[in-house]
Amino acid sequence: MSIADNLRQVQRDIADCAAQCGRSASDVRLLAVSKTKPLADLESAYAAGQRLFGENYVQEAVEKYQALSHLSDIEWHFIGPIQSNKSRQIAETMDWVHTIDREKIARRLSEQRPTELPPLNVLIQVNISGETSKSGIELSDLEGVVALVKSLPNLSLRGLMAIPAPQTDMALQREVYAPLQQAFLTLQKNDPMVDTLSIGMSGDLAAAIASGSTMVRVGTAIFGARQYT
Structure pTM? Predict the structure, then answer.
């Protein structure tokens, strides 16, 4: 199957999952995780209508941003961990950052965002499974991080992101997501700009959409198996 065929299938899956829980497919945006994929694959996805692309590695993200700069309506999302010495490159090129979990990084991104660009859209990453190997804040620390991000002039807080521990049972997946969903809804009540809950990948798409996801991150189902270089 082609990348265009794969995209259509993923979009059908999203629509089916949304319908099953009484939501509209238009409420869930698809982020194509394009890390390690060649430019030709991104161009194929773009030609098929995809506009949101997610990258994990700074140098690769910047190279793709530059190579595809003629496609001005691409929305670039950085979804990987951020080293402080790479923050400027992210601030200068990306439209969204999903992985805010430290004050130092948030401040640097705001300070380094070029003034001619709109504020950088950011999500606070929450470690909902308590995994020491994963980044993210504890939900108990969310209020303070929200206040920090809102105080920074060149960042725009749009919501929350999480990567839970792998779990195959849908009921357990939803159980893990429940506190995050509630935190997101509370955040939304207090801030009309908050509109994005970035949860859900191929393995937990249905549970994430049933738990209020507004953005799902899908890579392999669109582009095929990951390529390592």
Answer: 0.95
